[in-house]
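Batch manifest, entry 17 of 40.
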Amino acid sequence: MKTGPLTESELEWLDEVITKYATDKSIIDVSELDGMLTAILSSPQEIEPADWLLAVWGGADSVPRWATERERDHFINLTLQHMGDIAERLNDYPDQFEPLFGTREEEGQELTIVEEWCYGYMRGVALSDWSGLPQALQTELDAIALHGDEEKTVALDTFTADQYLESIDKIRPAALMLHAYWMAHPKVAPVQQPVRNEAKVGRNDPCPCGSGKKYKQCCAGK
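Output type: structure tokens
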């Protein structure tokens, strides 16, 4: 697999594929994917690719019916390469970390669109247990949730233009601080204990496999 940042054309291809297969449950663009991957990399617990790749689309029942296996594999490989680039910046070059915000032209001006990235970040947060975050850092998470949580975004309606711009400026440092904290204070994933069936089956009892035979005549000797 290739490493390093994706090219502009590779990011555009990812965005086109996401748009092509997007549903009400999935992410909607490459900016939201970038935010989600940032939160996954900042998680207090490791999240397996098999889990977060499903979450990208909103669950197993929403995974695309890919046009070809090549398209599927190319999407996964580019996503993993992009994730590796984000991880390198977060871990080793935080001064080079930049959220992949969207842009929109309005009245001849290019506006920064942060909502999709923040919604993606909060999707990633939901995949792990972020409880126990110190209050000081909860404020940092709230700075992202302000633009990525429907219950909190209503507060933006009361913001002046300057306050709105200030809230945008808080997102990048908040993401860096949250990543640094959880890397220094990771959580141990709970170990699932195997379920044991303590009840013993007698030799003359019906076999638990459901064959209708006695246990001694069925599975006892297996």
